[in-house]
Prior knowledge:
The structure holds three protein chains of three kinds.
Chain A: H1 2-17, H2 29-44, H3 59-67, H4 72-81, H5 83-90, H6 92-96, E1 100-103, E2 106-109, H7 110-136, H8 138-147, H9 152-182, H10 194-217, H11 235-253, H12 256-268
Antiparallel strand pairs in A: 1-2
Helix pairs in contact in A: 1-7, 1-9, 2-7, 2-8, 2-11, 3-7, 4-7, 5-7, 8-9
Chain B: E1 4-14, E2 20-30, E3 34-38, H1 45-53, E4 60-65, E5 68-69, H2 75-81, E6 82-85, H3 89-92, H4 98-108, H5 113-127, H6 142-154, E7 160-164, H7 172-184, E8 188-192, H8 196-202, E9 205-210, E10 213-219, H9 220-224, H10 227-232, H11 253-262, H12 264-281
Parallel strand pairs in B: 3-8, 3-9, 6-7, 7-8
Antiparallel strand pairs in B: 1-2, 1-4, 4-5, 9-10
Helix pairs in contact in B: 4-5, 4-6, 5-6, 11-12
Chain C: H1 10-34, H2 39-53, E1 58-59, E2 66-67, H3 72-79, H4 81-99, H5 107-130, H6 137-166, H7 173-205, H8 207-215, H9 221-248, H10 256-260, H11 272-275, H12 279-283, H13 315-350
Antiparallel strand pairs in C: 1-2
Helix pairs in contact in C: 1-4, 1-5, 1-9, 2-4, 3-4, 3-5, 4-5, 5-6, 6-7, 7-8
Amino acid sequence: MSNIKSSLYNLRVLDDLARKETSIHLVHPLTKLLTTVVFLTVVLSFGRYEIVGLLPFFFYPIVIITVAEIPLGPILKRVLLAMPFIIGIGIFNPVFDQQTMSAFGLIFSKGWVTFLSILIKSCVCVGASLLLIATTGMDSLAAALRMLKVPKIFVLQLLLTYRYIYVLIEEISHMMLAYSLRAPRQRGIHPRVWGSFVGQLILRTFDRAQRIYDSMALRNFNGEYHTGKIDKNCWKDMVYLFGWCLFFIIARTNNLPMLIGSFITKVVN
Amino acid sequence: MSYHMLEVRELNFDYPDGYEAIKNISFTIRRGESVGIIGANGAGKSTLLMLLMGVLFPKNGQVLVDEVAVSKKTLPMIRQQMGMVFQDPDDQLFMTTVYDDVAFGPRNYLLSEQEVNQRVTKALELVGISHLKDRAPFRLSGGEKRAAAIASVLSMEPDILIMDEPTSALDPKSRRRLISLLNSFEHTKIITSHDLDTIVETCSRTIVIKAGEIVAEGKTVEILTNEELLDHCGLEMPLSLQNCSICGSEKDFFTEKTKYSTTNTYGIQTIERDCRVSLVEN
Amino acid sequence: MHMADALLSPVVGGSMLAASVVVAAYSIKKTQNELDEKKIPLMGVIGAFVFAAQMINFAIPGTGSSGHIGGGMLLAILLGPYAGFLTMASILMIQALFFGDGGLLAYGSNVFNLGFFTCFVAYPLIYKWFTRKGISPKRIFWGTLISVVIGLQLGAFSLVLETLLSGKTELPFVTFLLLMQPIHLVIGIVEGLITAGVVAFVWRERPEILEKTSAGLPLGKVSMKKVLTGLSIAVVVIGGGLSWFASTDPDGLEWSVEKTGGTTELEASSSIHNVLADIQSKITFLPDYGFKTSESDNEVKATAQIEEVWPAVNTGTSVSGIVGGALTLVLAGLTGLIISLSKKRKEKATL
C-alpha cells in the first residue's frame, strides 16, 4: 500500500519539478539527454579502483540541483532506494578481494575500495537520470526521442503508458485498500484470488483501451501520430552541451583532485 | 443547410451475442436544438450514441447527419461535424499536456500548426481553461478534466455536441459551472444523463428509452413531470421538479414552465426561498 | 532484477543497447505491418497496468513474505511478443527515469534481460509449445509457469554475464551464478504462479483476448531467425568493434593514460573481463603525482606498475589524493551553496 502511494507521490514530485522554468529547464531536452548520456558514459568508463578521480563528477549533479532549484530530499531518497541491489552485489567485493594496500599508515582493503567506487558511481548515475527527468519532463523528453528518430509508434505508446500510470495506480490502490479492509492481518493478496484480483483489472484495462481508441478514432486517428512543432537547438544549448562535455573530458583525462592535492601539498611543503 | 441536423431512421442493432440493444429507433433533431436522452442503466443510451458516431454500425436503419448518411466512407467528415464527450474524461485525455490533447484532433486533420494553435487557443478560451494548457491532464480536478475533454472536442469545430453523462462525478459547483457552459454553446446538443436535473436545465426536448426502444418523446418539463412514465422506465422525477421535501408544498410546473425553459436557475431559487420561509414559520 | 548503471562498463552497456534497439526496430516493423492501430492505445494502457501491477503484494503462503510480478511474460501472452517487447521497453524507460531502477546506460541491458528472453525466447519456444494444440486451463498453467521461470533464469544469467564482462565486481563467475540463479528460480516460480492465475482468469472470462493474440501471430522460424541474426550481428559488430578499438588504441576513453605517463603494461589474467579485453580493467589509472618531498624529487615520475590494474601506491599519491579529493568535494559543495545563495538574493531583490 505505502509502496503504491509513494510511487505515485514520486511521479508527481518529478512531474511538478519538471514544470519549473529555471535556466536548466529551458535548455533543449535533446541537449540535456545527450549531456546526461555523455556524463554516464564518462563516469562508467572509470575503472573499478577509481575513487578520487570520480569526485569531480559530483559537480554536475550539484550544479544542476542548485541552478534548477531541485530540492535535494526527494532525489537523495530515490538514489538511496535504488541502492540495495548495488550494495547486494558490491558487498562481495570486500569478501572476495582481501588484498590490502597501505596509504599513509593506514591499511585499506582493495575490496572496500572497489565497493566504494561502485557506490559513488551508482550515486551520481542514478542522480543524473533523476535530474534529467526532473528538469525535462516526460513530454519534452518524448520530443527529444522523436528528434533522435525514435519511431512515433514507440513514442506515442511510451507517452500513453506514462499518462495512464496515474490512472491505474489510483485504481490499484483503491482495490488494495478495499481488499485489505476486508482481509486484515494479510501481508498481501491471498493466492486464491491472485488470478481474479489482477485479472479483473486486466479486463477493465482492455475495456478502457477500447474506449480510448474510440475517443481517438472519433478525432480521426488512423494510426499516424502527429506531433506539434518541436523547437530546434539554439547556440545556447550547444554551449551547454560542449561546456559540460569539456569539463567531463578534462576531469576524465586529468585526475583533478590529485592535481589540486599535489599542488596544495607542494605549497605546504 | 437543412432544417434537420440529425435524423435517425428505424435503427436496429444487435450485439454479437444476439442481444438486441436497439430496436427500431427513429427521431430527428433540429439545428440548434438541445435534446436529452434518458433511460435506466442498460436501456441502450450508450449503444445509441456509438451508433450515431459511427463507432458501431446498425443492423439496419440509417443515421443522417446534415443529410449525409453515416457510413465508413463518410466517417472522417461526419466525425468532424459531430463531437462526442465521453463519460470518463480520462478516456479522452490521453496525451501528457492539455494542449496536445486539444490539438490531437486538428492535427489528425493535418491542419497547419498555426491553425492548430488558433483552434486550441479558441477552444480553451471557450471553456475557460486557457491557463491550464501546459498542465498534465492527470493533474487536473474533476471539473477541469471535464472542461478539457470538452475543449478537445470543440477544437474540431463540430456542429453537434454529444455528451455522455456530462455531470457524473462532479461536485455541485463544478456541475453548476458545466451546466452554464453547456447552455452558452450554440451547438446542436444531445445529452444523455441519469442526472435528470441536468437534463431539465439544459435540454428543451427529451427522449426516453427503455430496453432499446423509445417509449416517450416530448418537451422536457412535460416528460420529467410524468411520474408514472418515469417510474415505468426505472427513473425518478428530478429533485428540482419534485414537491418540496421540507415544506411539502406542491409546485405547479405548468405555470412555472416558461420560467424553466427560460431562466432555470431563477426557478430553483424561488423554490428555495419558499422553503426557507416555511421553515421559519414552523 | 534490474541491471544497474554502476555495474556496467560503457562497452557492455552500449552493446546491449544496440542489441535492444535492433529487436525493438524489428518489433516496431512487425507491429506496424501486422496489427491494427487499435493496438496502440492497448499497448500504452496495458503498459501502465503492468507498471502499477508490479506494486501489488502477493502473499506467499507459508512464508510470511510477499512477491510480485515483473510482467514480461504476461505482456507477451496478452499482446503477443512484438507488442509485448515494446511495451516492456516503455515500462523500463519510465522506471529508469523516474525511479532510478536500472539506469539510462543500463537501459538496453534491462530491456534485453527482461524483455527479449521472455518475449522472444520463452514465449515462442515454451508457452507456444504448451498451447500448440489449443488453450486449456492445464496447458495455460504449465505453459505460463515454465516459460516465466525459464525467461527469468535466462534474464538472470544474462545479467551475470554482463556484470562480469563489465568487470566492476570481484564476484567469481560461478559464485555469482550460484547466487543469482536460485534467487531467480524462487522469484520465477512465484511470478509464474501469479501470471498463470491471471492468464487463466482472463481466458475464462474473455477467451477472445488470448485467442486473438495467439492466432494473429504466426511466429514462424524465419522471423525468429531474422531477429536472432540481426541481433548477433549487432552484438558482434558493436562489441567487437569497441573492444578492438579499445585494445589497439588502448583506450577509446582512457587515451590519456599513456600521455599522463603511465605505461600500459598489461598482465594477462585469467579473469574473464581481461581475457575479453575489456577496456576499463586494462588501463585503469591513477596518475602518479608524486609527493614532492624535496626539490630534487621534482621531476620524479613514479613508474606505473600496473599489476592487474592496481597501480603502485606510495604515500605521496595517497596524501595528494585525499587532500585533493576532500577539496574537490568541498569545492563542489561550495559551488552549490554559492549558486543557491545568489539565487535567494536575486529573489529577495525582485520581491
